[in-house]
Amino acid sequence: MIVIHHLGISQAERIIWLCEELSMPYEIVNHTRDPVTSPQSLKSVPGNGLGKSPFVHDTETGVNLSESLAISDYIIYKYAGGKLALKANDPHFADYLYWYHFSNSTMQANFVTSMFVNNSGLAPDHPMQHFADQRLEAGLQLMDERLKENKWLAGEDFTAADVMSVFSVTTQRYFGPQVSLAPYQGILRWLKDCSERPAYQQAMQKGDPKMKLLLGAEPPAQSLLAVGGVTSDIWKK
Predict the structure, then answer these.
(1) What CATH number has the domain bearing residue 40?
(2) pTM of this prediction?
(3) Cα–Cα distance between 211 and 147 in angstroms, integer?
(4) Residue 180 is part of a domain; what is its CATH number?
(5) Which stretches of the chain score pLDDT less than 70?
(6) Residues 82-93: pLDDT tens digits?
(7) Cis amide prior to 177 (ω within 30 degrees)
């Protein structure tokens, strides 16, 4: 069985959702932020000195693993026979690979860069602020254009690329930047479709039952970084 060490309001929601989509058994071990970063309980998990989440332990093989995409590939290919990934002979295989890796290599990286820059106290006209804003906007525009032309990121099939990508434009916004998705109607349509999937609903209820889901255009008025982390109520239903 896959044991998922789940840090509340984190990328670990991706792995819970993945397991729900695959209808595979798993166990959640919950950890609470302290009050923004990883708590000692997560850093004390054997093999997870960095306090990463998601972090999984496979009780059958003894494997410990962190990093969302690595965990996703491990589960998909070891236990799901490749389900939610496209085969190499699929005409959209390259699209799948691109958007699957875009989720962390570009979109999540852009959000995190912007989050740090926005909280660094730089002047609005500082070159780094302009760079971060421009990169984030360009990534969102590219994703939006893709989703205006395709139902899912890889094409007509729902895949792990979608599972890995939702976090960045939803829950990540609790940490910043406070970006509106109103200009990105393709992304908003896609988020609605994702949120209507029973597996997504079950995953979010199991992983973060108290969290208000950021599926609409507007972000919270303030980030968790600005209000003392999870001790505030801005993230609660």
Answers:
(1) 3.40.30.10
(2) 0.96
(3) 26
(4) 1.20.1050.10
(5) none
(6) 999 999 999 999
(7) yes
